[in-house]
Amino acid sequence: MTTITEAARKTTLIPPSSGEFSSRQPKTIRLYPVSNYTFGTKEAQPEEDPSVSARLQRLQTHYEQFGMRRTCEGVLVCHEHGHPHILMLQIANAFFKLPGDYLHPGEDEIEGFTARLNERLAPVNAQYPAEQHTAEWEVGDCIAQWWRPNFETFTYPFIPPHVSRPKECKKLYLINLPKHKVLSVPKNMKLLAVPLFELYDNSARYGSQLSAIPQYLSRYNFEFVDENNVVIGRSPALNH
């Protein structure tokens, strides 16, 4: 069993096959290299709140008027050197977050989520080929839910037993990126490709939600494709 495809092998020392080992798993996800994507810039998008306390106060006002806040964020996966990388926004050279935001009251979940993705990452002009920046977002599985039980910074991947009225639910969706796409980043942010090995068990830098992404993705098999659309690697459970 090996992760290297036959066309990409440079050795004849192939380990023996250990048999099929992919039952009851989701379909394989094809990942394209980060070099396939074009990154541009657009006008800055300042944070809505000047402080954490102001953000929590706005959350409380929203809850009193509209109930629990619904937030959606996207896990955009590509690869570099045959290893999955997550596209993340970095703000002020310190704070990391996934693209997405909260839904407006009464807004459809997926339509609202794709609108937030476009607001954050879609180009604002037609300077790129239309097929690269007009493609719809392909929203895949919901891979995690995080709950905010109170008007505080703490969130959990479960609803605590003493909480019956959570104040916010955040869903993380897997975004299946196409072969090519243009992504325009607000000038006050950076879009970085962060490898899974950097995220894993690194809550001190990325927080509990982002550092858990490697666990969320561990249920999937991946197929790695190069710039010429040639498969150069795949999860070993595919038994090649």
Give a structural overview:
This protein is an alpha/beta fold and 240 residues long. The protein is 21% helix and 31% strand. It is built from six helices and twelve strands. The chain has helices at residues 52-66, 109-121, 130-133, 196-199, 203-211, 213-217; strands at 29-31, 37-42, 69-80, 83-91, 95-97, 100-102, 139-148, 168-175, 181-186, 189-195, 222-225, 231-234. The strands form three sheets. Strands 3, 4, 5, 6, 7, 8 and 10 form a seven-stranded mixed sheet that branches. A three-stranded mixed sheet has the order 1-11-12, with no helix packed on it. The chain has a two-stranded parallel sheet with strand order 2-9. Strand 4 and strand 5 (95-97) form a beta hairpin. The radius of gyration is 20 Å and the shape is globular. It starts with 28 loop residues before the first strand and ends in a 6-residue tail after the last strand. The mean pLDDT is 90.
Task: Give the structure's gist in a few sentences.
21% of the residues lie in helices and 31% in strands. With 240 residues, the chain is an alpha/beta fold.
Q: What proportion strand?
A: 25-35%
Helix-strand sequence: EEHEEEEHHEEEEHHHEE
The beta-strand count equals 12
- Please give the radius of gyration in angstroms: 20 Å
Molecular shape:
globular
* Low-pLDDT stretches: none
Average pLDDT rating:
90
Helix content range: 10-25%
**Count of DSSP-assigned helices:** 6
Largest sheet: 7 strands, mixed
Structural class: alpha/beta
Cα distance, first to last residue? Answer: 6 Å
What multimeric state do the chains show?
A: single chain
